[in-house]
Amino acid sequence: MAGSAPIGDSSRSAGVSALGHCRRRTDPFTMLQNINDLYGHKLAASDGEIGQVRDFYFDDHSWVVRYLVAETGTWLSGRQVLISPHAFGPLDPERKVLSVKLTRKQIEDSPSIDTHRPVSRQFEVDYYNYYGWPTYWDGGNLWGTGNYPVIVPPPLESKRQHQGHKRRDDVHLRSTVSVRGYEIQASDGPIGTTVGFQVDDQTWAIADMIVKTGHWFAGKEIMISPNRIERISYENSKVHVYLTKADIEQTAAHEVVKSGT
Predict the structure, then answer these.
(1) From the CB of residue 148, how many other CB atoms can be counted at a distance below 10 Å?
(2) Residue 165, number of CB atoms within 10 A of its CB
(3) Is residue 7 very low, low, confident or very high in pLDDT (cuts 50, 70, 90)?
(4) What is the model's pLDDT at position 27?
(5) Which of 19, 31, 65, 186 is within CB 3.0–4.6 Å of 1 for a Cys-Cys bond?
(6) Count of CB atoms situated within 10 Å of the CB of 213
(7) Of 110, 140, 174, which closes a domain?
(8) Which residues on neighbouring strands pair with residue 71, listed in sequence order?
């Protein structure tokens, strides 16, 4: 993404970076990943391949990726296979493989949810109980009691009984794939479309929404911090931001100059 710059987060060090590469944060152990690069990565369980990355579900209140959606082919057809970052192992960008710290049997026996059905909180309760992980919605931090997915070895066999999903659907979990192409609406008009996200590969928090601007800004791609996003209108396929075109032009120019010093 040559010539790109973060918009709306002056507290974070700015940089011009190319999409398709990792952008290192101030934490030396953390990388920002372009989520588009992860689609299609193979998923390697501890005892064999289980499929590939199809999508991610993120929480549009806390702006954290909560689940990976796996494409398992005919192995587990007719159901969504969701994997929490709690189970993520090393990511090998060269081989395009994401390791998963689960067995195929554990995944097969995990609580099931029909394909195309929204994720409900009741499903999440059953899911987290099955694996024995701490819930992210209790505690007040990104992942409940902490800011990182806690690495807890899940039980090989679960004796918990899965309950019916009777609670309302959790409307805060959204598909990263579905949001692509949404129009970005500034206070003075449309400024472009969503093309992806940058995510922290340790916390799985969304650091930036990647936006392709229109002709008014020469079609450049910019990164907008979630703290500048007012709301997402799923009915109208729009993302409303607390910005004007002038804000973007001025901030982008400042960051490009700053990054070269």
Answers:
(1) 15
(2) 20
(3) low
(4) 53
(5) 19
(6) 20
(7) 174
(8) 52
**Of residues 36, 49, 41, the one with CA closest to residue 212:** 36
Given a cut of 60, whether residue 183 has pLDDT beyond it is yes
Helix (H, G, I), strand (E, B) or coil at 23: strand
- 245: tokens are 């075109």
Residues 75 and 193 in one domain: no
Strand partners, 181: none
Q: How many domains does the chain have?
A: 2
Please report, for the domain that includes residue 216, its CATH number.
2.30.30.240
What element of type H or E holds 249? helix 245-259
- pLDDT, residue 80, reads 87
Residue written as token pair 């987290």: 128
Q: In 3-state terms, what secondary structure has residue 53? A: strand
Assess if residue 139 is contained within a domain.
yes
Containing H/E element for 159?
Answer: none
State which H helix or E strand residue 41 sits in. Answer: none
Residue type, 179: V
The residue whose two tokens read 């679960």 is 158
